[in-house]
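Hi support team,

I'm filing this because I wasn't sure whether my run with flavin-adenine dinucleotide finished correctly. The job status page said complete, but I'd like someone to confirm that the output block is well-formed before I use it downstream. Pasting the exact inputs I used:
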Amino acid sequence: MDEQRAAYDLLVVGGGIAGVTTAIEAAEAGLTVALVEREPSLGGRVARFHHYFPKLCPPSCGLEINYRRLREHANVRVFTLASVESIEGDSPEIEVTVCVRPRYTNPVAFDYGEWAKTCPVDCEDPFNYGIGRRKALYYPWDNAYPPRWVVDERAVDDPAFREWAQGDPAGGIDLDQRERTVSLTVKSVAWATGWRPYDASKLDRLGFGELPDVLTNVIFERLSAPDGPTGGELTAPSGREVNRVAFVQCAGSRDKDHLPYCSGVCCAVSLKQASYVRERLPEAEIHMFYIDVRTPGRLEDFLQEREQDPRITLHRGKVAKVEQVEDGLAVTAENTLTGDRETVTVDLVVLATGMQPTAAVEKLAARAELDENGFFIQDDEPAAHYGVGTAVRPLGVAETLQDATGAAMKALQMARRS
Ligand SMILES: Cc1cc2nc3c(=O)[nH]c(=O)nc-3n(C[C@H](O)[C@H](O)[C@H](O)COP(=O)(O)OP(=O)(O)OC[C@H]3O[C@@H](n4cnc5c(N)ncnc54)[C@H](O)[C@@H]3O)c2cc1C
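And here is everything the job wrote out:
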C-alpha cells in the first residue's frame, strides 16, 4: 500500500556513519529529516569492522550514541530496506518516490536467536562479503538499528522455509508483506551513499578469487570480528595454519588502470589489522609491502607503534605477483627506488584495496555533478543535491563525521531559503 505524501526539510540517502550523523545534526538544529537506507540496518561499512581507529573501539561504540540520538529525536523518520526510485522538481519542492522492500517480520518482543538456529534454509551472507552463510531468518548484526529480525527475500518462496515458518513461536514472521511506495517532498537531498571495496578480481596476478588464502582488507575485518564467520579466529580459508601474513598496500590504488587516487586510509587500516594478527597470533611474522606509508595527522602514532614490533617488517616495494608455492604464497615485490626484486613466502595475503564511491558503480537519481571517479563534486554555493562523507572523497570516520556536520549546515541553508 502506498503512503500519503509527507513533507520533510531534508532527505538523506544512505544510513552509514555519514548519513546517520547528517540526519541527527540536521534534526537537532530543528529540521525534519527522512533517512533512506537500503540495507535492513543502519551503520554502513563501519558496522562490519572488528575495530576502528584511532581508538580501536568496536563499531558499536560510535554507532550506539548515534542510535540513541536517533531514538530520542522525533524529527527523523528512518526507512530501511528502502531506495530512491525517482526524483522530480527542484528545491523547495523536490518530489521523491521511495520504494520500501518487505522485511517479512513485524516487531514482537521475542528473541528468535535459538529458534532461528533450527531454520532449514540458509543463504550466502553479503554482510560477510560472501564468506560463510546465514540462516534465512536473521538478525542483521549485534547492534542492528532498527533492532529487528529479517527474512532473507531469497528464501521467501522456498517451500522448506515456508513450512518451517509456520511453526513461528511468536507470530512475528509475515510472509505476506509486500513492497510499498512512499512519496516525499523535501527541500534538499544529502547523498551519503558511501563507498564499496574496489573489485580485487580485476587485479592481475595478485591471486584474488583464484588463491583461497588471498583476501581483501574488508574480508579481513570480518574474519577478525567475533561476530564474523570464524568467530574472530584467524584461520586461512584453505585450512592452512597461519604463521606469516602479508599486507599488500595500494592494491589497485594510485594506479591509472584501476583507482588513480589514494584512498587515504588503507595504510592505517593495514597497520590496524596488523594489531589484530598480533592479538590472536603473538608469534606471527607480519610483512607490509608499501610504495610509501601514508598515516596523516595523529595516525603517525599508529605507524610508530607498529615499527617497534620486531616481528613486523615493512618492505618498500610494489607487489608484482602472488603465487601459490609448496609452503604457502610467494609475494614478489619490486623496490620502487632501487628496482630490486624481493620474494617473501607467507600463509595469508591481505590486499589493501581502496574505496570506490557507490556512484561510480551504480546510477543514482542525484541531480549533481560527479567527477571522473564517481565522487560528488561539491558546489561552493548551497545546492539542492550534495554529497556527504565518502560519497565526496575517501575519508576516515573522524573526517566523515566533520563532513556530515557541514552537510547539516547546507541542509539548514536550503531549508531557510524557502
Ligand atoms: C578495510 C577498511 C577499513 C577501514 N577502517 C577504518 C577505521 O578503522 N577507522 C576509520 O576512521 N576509517 C576506516 N575506514 C574508512 C571508513 O570505512 C569510512 O570512513 C566510512 O565507512 C565512511 O562512512 P560513509 O557513511 O561515508 O559510507 P558507508 O559506510 O559506505 O555508508 C554508506 C551507506 O549508504 C547506503 N547506500 C549506498 N547506496 C545507497 C542507495 N542508493 N540507497 C540507499 N542507501 C544506500 C549503504 O548501504 C551504506 O549503509 C576503513 C576503510 C576500509 C576500506
